[in-house]
Structures
1.
Amino acid sequence: MDPVCPDATLLSPPPAVAAGPSSWKADAADASRAAGGDFRAFERLYRAHVNRVHALARRMLNPDEAAEATQDVFVRAWQKIGSYRGEAAFGTWLHRLAVNVLLGRRQVLKLERERHLEDDSALETIPARVARTSDLSMDFEAALERLPAGARQVFVLHDVEGYRHEEIAQFLGVTTGTTKAQLHRARMLLRGHLLA
Amino acid sequence: MSLSTDPWEGRLSEHLDGTLSAEERSLLDAHLVTCGECRATRAELEQIVARARALPERAPGTDLWPGIEARVAALAQQPFSAIRARRPAAVRRGITLSWPQLVAAGLLLVVLSGGGAWFASRGPRLAGRATQPAQTSGGTNYAAAHQDADPEYAAQVADLEKALAERREQLDPSTVKTIEANLKIIDLATTQARQALAADPANPYLKEYLSKSMRRKVELLKQATEFASTR
C-alpha cells in the first residue's frame, strides 16, 4: 500500500486570506465537514466570515475587545456547528450566534441591565438644534464608539446589521418600545456627534 | 427624551422606518409639511441610516485563526489546557501554544474526530478496543508497530524519529510530551485500523483511514523535526 495516498484534509490548499463572498452551498458543505471534525473546512468558514464577525464585535463592544470576542464566537461556532442544518445561509446562522456570544460577554460582566436602564443624561450633550450641514465629516466609526452601550447595540443591530425590532428585543430581553427608543436615541446622538 | 420641545421629533425614526401606525403617519406627514426643523432632522437621520448601512466589514489586525485553533484543540484534550494554564498570563492572552503544539493539536483533533467516526461506524465491538492501550513498544520507537506491514513506510518513520531524537534536546519538554502523546494516538488509530482491515480487507473507508493515519504520522514527525532544527 502506498502510505502517501490522497488526503483531502492534509492536501487541500490553504484558504485564501481574503476570501470573497461565500456561497450558501459551499459554506453548507464546509459546515458539514467541520461538524465531522474537518479543521480545514472550519478554517475556510472562518476565513470567509471573520471580517463580518469582527466588524460586529468591534461595533458592539469596542476595538480592544473585538479580537478576543471574535475568537469566542468561532470557538462557540465550532462547538455548535453540529446544530447547523443548512436551512438558512451559514452566515446568517453564524451571525445570530455571534450576536448572542457578544451580548453574553456583557451579561457576564453584569453591565447589560445597568446600561439599558441608564438615564438620558447623555442626550443632554446633544444640542437641541445644531448647525446644519450636509457634510458628515467625522469618522462614523469613531462616533459609534462614543454611544452609550445600550443605544449602540440597538443601533448596530438595527441600522448596520438589519435586524428587526422584534428580533433585537428578543436578543436583549427588552420590549420593542425600548429598542425603538434606544434606536432613535442613538441616531440623534450620532447626528449630534457628526454635525457638531 | 431630547431637549426639543417638538413632540413629533421623538417619532421621526419610526416615521423613517415605517413603523408608525397609519394614523400616526398621516399626522406626522402633515406636520412635516409645515415644520422645517423636523423635515431637516428627518433628512439627517436618513443620512445616518444610509451611512450605517454602507459601513464596510472590518478585518482584525492580526490573524485570529491560530488562537482559535489552539482553543478548540484545548477543548478536545485536557493536557493542552494544563499546558496553557502553566504559561504566564501575558502569554495566555495571545497565541497560547507553541508552533509544534498547534500543529500537534490540529492533528490530534483530526485523528480523534476521524477515529470517533470510525468507531461509530464499527459499532460497540471495535469501540471497546479503543480503551485498550496501544500495542506499541512505547518511548520514541513509534515505527515498531508497523514495520511488518510496510517496510518503506517503517524506514521513513524510523529515519524521521531518529532525526527528531537527535534534536530532542532543542525542544521544550512540554512540546516533546505533546508530540509523543499525539504520536501514540496516531499509532493507536493505525493499529486499530489494521485490525479492522484484517477482518474486512475490502473496506474502502478503513483503507483510506489507515492511509490518513500513516500520512499524519509522517507529517507530524516532519514538522516536529523541522521545528526542532530551527531552535
2.
Amino acid sequence: MKPRFTALALATFAVACTDAGGPSSVTAPAAAPPEHLRDTGLDADGVLPFSPQYPLWTDGATKRRWIWLPPGTSIDASDPDAWVFPAGTKLWKEFAFDRPVETRLAERLPDGTWRYAAYVWDADGTDAVLAPRGARVELAALGAGRRHDVPAAGDCLLCHDTRRTPVLGFSTLQLSPDRDPGAPHAEPPPPGAVDLASLAASGRLVNLPAALLATPPRIAARTPTERAALGYLHGNCGACHDATGELAELAMNLRHDAIATTVGKASRAPLPHDPAAPRVRIAAGDPDASVLLGRMGSRAPAHQMPPLGTLVVDDDALALVTRWIAELEPQPDRRRP
Amino acid sequence: MTATKLTSAAILAALAACNTSSAQRAPDPVERGRYLVTAAGCNDCHTPMIMGPDGPMQDPNHVLAGHPASRVVPPPPAPEGPWIVSVSDTFTAWSGPWGVSFTANLTPDEETGLGTWDSATFIATIRNGRHMGKGRKLLPPMPVEMIATYTDEDLAAIFAYLQSLPPVKNRVPEPIPPAAPLAAAPAS
C-alpha cells in the first residue's frame, strides 16, 4: 500500500499546486431555469400583479408585472431602500409591442443568489421559450428597422447586480399608494395589484417603518414637473447612478433625493468634436448646456443613456426633464467647471 | 531506505516543489501586473507614441495615460474600399465603423484616470466589457475578450500595477459616434 499511498499523496499535492485556471468568477452553473415560461409558476396561486409608479422606459413597450412569495414568507423592509426578499421569491415582467414579445423572470434561489431568465414569445402568443443567449425580435408592425433586443442571461446583471438590492421596480417609493399622476408611461395598477398598504396589511411586507405607512412616500418637489422628472430619473437612472454601486466613483447620484447634488456639476466626459457641447451635467435653467439631456436624447451606442435596453429615445421623458431643468433657478457660480 | 522514509521524502519533495512553484507564480501583485500589462501589449495603445528616427516610440512621460487631450485630432479620412480603419500618429485615436475611440487614461489620477476606481470596478469593466462595468461598451481596438480570459487574481494584479504608476492628469475625450448608425451585419 505504501507505494500507492505515495502516488496518491503526490497526486494530491500536484492538484494543490495547480492554478485554478480561467477566470475565477466562473463557477459551476446553477440549475438551469425551466425551458418554457408556463413551467415557471406564473399561473400558481398567490401570484400578485403590481405596477411601479415610475417605470423603466423600454421603447414604448407596455408591461405587466407579477410577484410570488413562498407561502408563509414575507419581505423584510427594515431598510426601506433595500428590501430583503425571501428565498423562493419570483418576479416576472412581460414586454409587449402590440403582442407579448418577451417575459423576464428573476428568482431568488435557496442559497440566496438570484437567477435571471428571459423567455421569448412566439408570434401567436401561445408559448414563450427560454433564450439564455438573448434574441433579436423584429417589430415590423412598428415600422422599418424597429426591433426589440432580448438580453442574454449575463446582461441582466448589468442592471440588477447592484450593491443595494437586485429588485428595482418593487420598492417603497415605486409601490407608494400616493402615486404620481405626472409620471411618464405609468400603467394604472391592474385589478388586485399590491401596494405598500396591501402588502403590509397582508403580512407579506414586514418591518417597514410605521411613518411610511402613515404617510406614504412622495418625492419632495416644488412643482408637479419636478416631482415627475425626479421620479423618472430615479426609476430609469438611479439604480446604477447612486452612491453605493460601481458607479459611485462618478459622484453622479440620480436617485430622487440626491439629484440636487448633480446640478451644476462639471461633466467628466467632454465631447472633443464639438467645443460648444454641454459641459455641465445638469445646468440649472439651461437645458442646452446640460449633458444629461444629450445622453438621454442619443441612441449612439457609445453615447446613449441608458447604455442598454433601449433603442428609441423617450421623447416624452426628454421633454419633461427639459422642462424641469428650464424651471430650475440658474446658479451662475456653478454653471462652469 | 524504508518505504515509510521513501514516502515521507516524496511528500517533502513535492511540498518543496509546490512552494517553489507557488513562489514563482505568485510574486508581488504590482510586479505581476507589470508583467501582464507589458506582455499583453497594453502600452501599444494606452501609451501615446512619438515618432522618432526609428519609428514610433512610447512617450516615457505619459506611460499608460491614454490619448493626449492636447492632441486634438481632425475628422478622420473617409473610408475607401477595404480601408475602413484609421489610426492617429500617437496610436491613441482610432477611427472605424464604430466612430472614433480614444484610449483611456489608466494612471491613478483622481480626476482624469482610475484614481477613484477600486479593483472590483476594474474587474467588472473587463468582465462585462463595459465602462465601469455598467456603462457603454468598450470600443475597438480594445481586445477585451482576450483580457477577459485573465483570472480575477490577474486582473487585480494589473489594477495594482496601474495604481502604482505616476498619476498623469490627462482628460481623454469621449468617443465620437459614427456619422450613421452601424448597419446590421448581413446574414451569412
3.
Amino acid sequence: MADALSRFDGKTAVITGGGGGIGAAIAARLHREGARVAVLDRDVSALPTGARWYLHEGDFLAEGAPEAFHAAVVRDFGPVDILINNLGQSGRERAAPFHRSQEEVWRFVMEISLFSAMRMSRLCAADLQARGGRIINMSSLAAFAGNPGLTDYAAAKMGLIGFTRSLAREMAPHGVTVNALAPGAIRTAAHAAMPPEIIADIIAKTPVGFVGEPEDVAAAAAFLASSEARYITGQTLLIDGGNWML
Amino acid sequence: MVAGGAQGIGLAIVLRLRAAGAKVGVIDLAGPALSALPGDVTALAADITDTAALAAAGAEIAASLGGVDGLVNSAGIDLVAPLSDITDDAWERIIAVNLTGAMKLARAFEPSLRASGCAAIVNLSSGAGLVPLKHRSAYSASKAGLQMFSKSLAMELAEAGIRVNCVCPGAVETPLFRASISGGEDEAAQLQAVRARYALQRIAAPDEIAAAILWLLSDEASYVTGVALAVDGGRTFH
C-alpha cells in the first residue's frame, strides 16, 4: 500500500496536546504518511525530532500561546491542511461530587477541552477553507456515557460534538469536513492512573474485551483526514470496542 | 463476500476490495450485471431471502475463496408509498430483503467468519434509518431495524473476534436512487431539492461509500464495532 503511506505528502497537520497518548499516536501516524506535523503541548520530549516535525513546548492556555504557535507553524510549514483539536483534560485530580464542584475547575476543563478547539479552529479557518482542509475534534465516550464526578468533562466533550456539527455545516461549502472522534478506554497515562477495579469494570462492559491502543484512534483520525472520507462530515465516530453502540 | 455486489454501492466495494488485493465473492440476483463481473470474482446467483440458496452459496464461496474474513451486505430495495398504498406483500417484501435478508446472510456465513478469527461484517443501512423520510415508512423501518440487528450481533460476535458495523449513506448515484426520482413531474427540481439537504450540497458517488466500508472491514478499524457511520455529506449529523 505505497499509496497509503504517502497520503499526506505535502500536507501540514497541527495537533494540539500531541505530546503523549492519543495525540502523539496521531502525530506519528500522519508523519509516517508524509505530513509535516506540528505539535503544541506542555511536554513534547517523548516525540521524535527531525524532518517534517515542529515541536512547540508551551501551555495552550497561556496568553498568546495559540497565536504564537499558529504563526510559527505557518512560517515554517505553510498553511494548515489538517487540524486535530486533540487537547483536552478532565479536572480528575480535583474532581468532586457535582454539588461541591468548583466553578474554577469547570472553567479550566471548558477552556482546555472546548475553548481550545474553538481558538485553534478560528486561527486555522481561513487557510482550511482556502485548501479544502480537515478538522477533527477529540470528543469522548464520556460525553455519551457520563461518569460520576466528571460533569464538567462530559459537558465539554458533548459541547465539542455540537461545535463539530455546526462548524461542519458552515465549512462544507468550502470543501472542509469537520468530524469528531469519541474514544472509549484507550491505553494512555490517564488510563493507567485509574484504579485496577475500574479498569476491570470497563473491560467487562466492552464487548471486544480489551482496552484499545492510541494507534486505534490514530487509524480513525488518518482515515477521516484522508480523501477517502471526503463525503463524511459532521459525524462523531466512537472508537470504543463496542461499549456504547450509539 | 459482498451480497448485492453486482451493481451500485456493492459493485463499488467489490472493485475496491479487488484493488486492495482481496479475493472476492459476490451473491446477487441472476442477470446481466452479475454476469458482467470481472472473471476473478466468484459470482453466484442467489436471492437473499432464500435460506437454502444462501446456505449453499455460503459453503461454495467459503470453499472457493479458502475462507471468508469480510462480509458486506449491500442488497436492498426501496419503497416510496404513503401508508394507505402499502400492500401487505410490498411491506413483507422490503422487510424480507432489507432486514431478514441480512440476518439470513450473516447466519449463512457465521461459521466461515468464526473460522477466520479476525473478521468484520458491514451492513449497508441508510440515513433513512437514522432520521425518518416521508413516504418511506417501510424502508426507514427496515434500515433502522438493520442497525439494531447489527449492534446486537456486534455484542454477540465480539468474543469470536468478529466486528459488526453499519454504514449509513444518504443519496448515492445508483440505479436504486435514479429509480426513486425518475418519473416525477420535474426531475431536475427533485434532484436540486435532494442536494439541498446535504451540507456538501451534492449526491455521493458509490465509491465514496465503498471507501468507508473498506475502512471498516480493515484492521485499521480493529477497535470499532457496533457503530452506524453516516457517510452522507453532512445530512444526519449522527
4.
Amino acid sequence: MNATTTSAHRQLTGQWLVRGRWPGRLFLGLVLAVIVWKLVESLLAGPMVFVQQLINGVQLGMVYALIALGYTMVYGIVRLINFAHGDVFMVGAFVSYYAISGFRLHEWPSRVFPGMADGASIAIGTVTVMILSMIVCAVLAVVIERTAYKPLRDAPRISALITAIGVSFFLEYFGALDFVFTPSFITYERPFPVQTYYIQDGIHLLQAGQTRPAGSITFSNILVIIVIVSLILLFLLSTFVQRTKTGKAMRAVAFDKPTARLMGIDVSRTISVTFALGAALAGAGGMLYAIAFPSIVFWMGIIPGLKAFIAAVLGGIGSLPGAFLGALIMGQAETLAGAYISSPMRDAIAFTLLIIVLLYRPRGLFGEPEREKA
Amino acid sequence: MKPRFLFAVLIVLALVLGACAPAATEAPAEPAAPAATEAPAEPAEPVAGEPIKIAILSPLSGAVPTFGVSNRDGALYAIKEWNAKGGVLGRPIEAIVEDSQCSADPAVNAANKVIGQDGVKFIVGEVCSSASIPVSEITNEAGVVQISGTSTNPQVTLNLDGTTKEFVFRACFIDPFQGTVGAAFALKQGYKTAFIMYDQANDYVLGLAENFEKAFVEGGGTIVGKESYTGTDTDFSATLTKVAEAAPDVLYVPDYYNIINLVGAQAKEKGVTAVMMGGDGWDSADLDMAAAEGGFYTNHYSPEDTRPIVVDWVANYQAEYGAVPDALATLAYDATNLLLNAIETAGTADDTAAIAAALAASEWEGVSGKITFDEQHNPIKAAVILGVQGGRITYVDTVAP
C-alpha cells in the first residue's frame, strides 16, 4: 500500500517533470528577474539617464499607438489582422514627403498670408500636410478593403489573412517602383526646424552645436509634437467611437454583426469607416515617424507594423485603451532593452513579450475573453 | 498552303544560316593560326614594335555601366600616356576592351576570350568583386597577370585556403583598411576618446569598426563605448543617450549613408557634439548634409586633392573626356600604370611570373597615393579624408596609415 502510493507519487512527479510547464516558467521567471534586477540597478546607477531613456521610449510608444489602434479597430470589427496596415503607414510617410519636398504644401500659410507669425504658419502648414496624408491613407484603405477584403468576408478567416499579406507585399513592391516612390532610401525633409531643450534648473533651449550639459535631461520639439498630436488624435477617436452614431454602429458591429445588420445598421459602410479611421491614424503616424526618424524607404512599415501589432495583442486585440497602453509598454520595453540589456536584442525582447503575453494572458491586458460563436 | 509555305521558308533559312555559321567561326580562326605559329619565335627575339596586348574588362552594360566607362577610360588614358612616351620595353601597347557586365558569366567568357583567342597575358579589371573573383581563378591558373582597380572583396586576391593568388592584384585598399586610416586621422586631430556604433550583421561595417578600434587604442586613444545595432533600426535614441553620457571626442559610425542620416540627425537632437566619422559608405549624393555636418569620412581619392600628381591627372582627364575623373577612373589609371611599370621593371613581356614578382615589389607614386603591396597583394597607401562642412563635401587631408 505504502509502496504503491510512493510509486504513484513518483509517477506523478515524473509526469509533472516531463509534462509540466515548470521549465518554461522557471526560465521565464529567471529572465524576468534578470531584467528587473538590471533595470533597478540602472535606475540606481543613473536616475537621470534612466528618466532620459523613459522619455525616449515615450516618443516611440506614441507612434506605435497610432498604428496599433488601426490594427485593433479592424480586428475588433471584422476579426481580420490587417497586415497591410504597416504599409499604409509607409504610404502616409511618403505622401507627406512629396507634399513637403515636392509641393511645399507646408508653406502655404506663409505664401497666402505673408504677414502671419512664423510659429502659426508652420503649425497650420504641418497640420495641412498631416490631414492630406490621413485622407490619402483613408481612401487607400477603403479601396483595399473594398477590392481585397470585402469579397472574402464570408470566406474562412485564413483566406482574408493571406490576402492581407498579399496586399502588404503589393504595397511595398509597388511603392518600390521607380515611378511610384523609389527603391532607395530618401532623406525626409522636416516641415519645421528641430529644437532641443534641456532640463537643468528649468527648461533651456540647446543652441545649435552646443553640447548637452552633463547630468541634464534633453527632449526635442519633435517629442512634444508627437505626444500632443497623438493625444489629440486618440481623444478624437475615442470621442468618435463613444459619442457619434457611426461610432455606436461600429461598436454594435464589433459586438454582433448579424444582429447589428438586423437592427438596420449598414455593416459594409461601418466596416469601411473603420478601415478609413484606422488608416488615417496610421497616415498621421507615418508622418510623425518620418519626422522623428528622417530616412524613409518602401519597407519602413514592416517593423513598426509588426511591433504595433504586438502592442495591440499585448493590450488585448479589439480594445482601444488596450492598444494605447500596449504601445506605450512596447515603446518602453524596446528602449529600455536597447539601453540596458542589449541593443541588437531589443526586437527579440519585444517579440518575447508577445510570447509571454500569449502564454499567460492570451486575451491581453484589456481583452475580453473570446466568445465562442456557433 | 500558307503555313506550309512559311515552314519551307524557315527550313531554307535554317539551312542557309547553318551553312553560314561554320564559315563565321572559321573566319577568325584563320588569321589566328599564323599568329600561333609565329608565337614560339617571339620569346627568343622580341620584335621591336610588336604590341603588348592588355585586356580591359569593364562592365560597359549591365547594372553599373557608368562604373565601366570610368574604369575603361582611366585604363585607356594610362596606356595612351605610355604609348606617347614610347611604350613599354620599346614596344607599343594595344588595349583590348571587353564588356564584362559586372557579372560572373560574361566576365569569365570575356577573360577566356582574351586569353585563349587574343593571347593576352595582362588584364586590368574587373570593377565588381563578384566578377573579379571568378576571373581571378582563370588568370591565376593561366599565369595571366590581373590587376583590378576597384574590387574590394578580400577573396579577389586570396585563394580559398587563405594563400595569395600569385598573379592577382588590386589597386584599391580593402574595406577594413579604412578603419585604420580613420583612426590615424582621429589621433592626428588630437581626439582622445571614441565611441563606436556598428551594425553587427554587416561585414563591411564590422571590418572598419574593428580596425578603427585596434589602431585607435594602439595609437593611445581610448574607446569609451561600443554599441551594436541592426540594419533595420531607425530609433537610435537609447544608444545616443549613452553616447551623450560618455561625451566622447569621436563618434565612429562606419555604415552607409542611410544609417548616417538617422544617427546624425538624432545625435544632433540629443546634444551630442562628438565629431562623427565613418568610411566610404557615406559617399552618396543622398547623404543628409545637415545630419552629417561636421563629420569626416575616409575615401579612396578626391579630385580636390592638392598634390601635383592629382591636379595634373584631373586636368588631363578633363581635357580628354570632358569630365572630372571619379575614384573608378583614378584607380583604373593607377592599376594600369602599376602593371606597365612592373613589365618595364621585369624587363620582359612574356615571363609573367617575373612580372607578378615585380608588381608585388613595386613602389609606385600613384594618383591615389604612394602604393606598395602587402603579402596579400593589397595596396598599402594613403587614404583621403573628406569632411562635411557647411553643407558640402570638402577635401581635408591625405593620411597614410
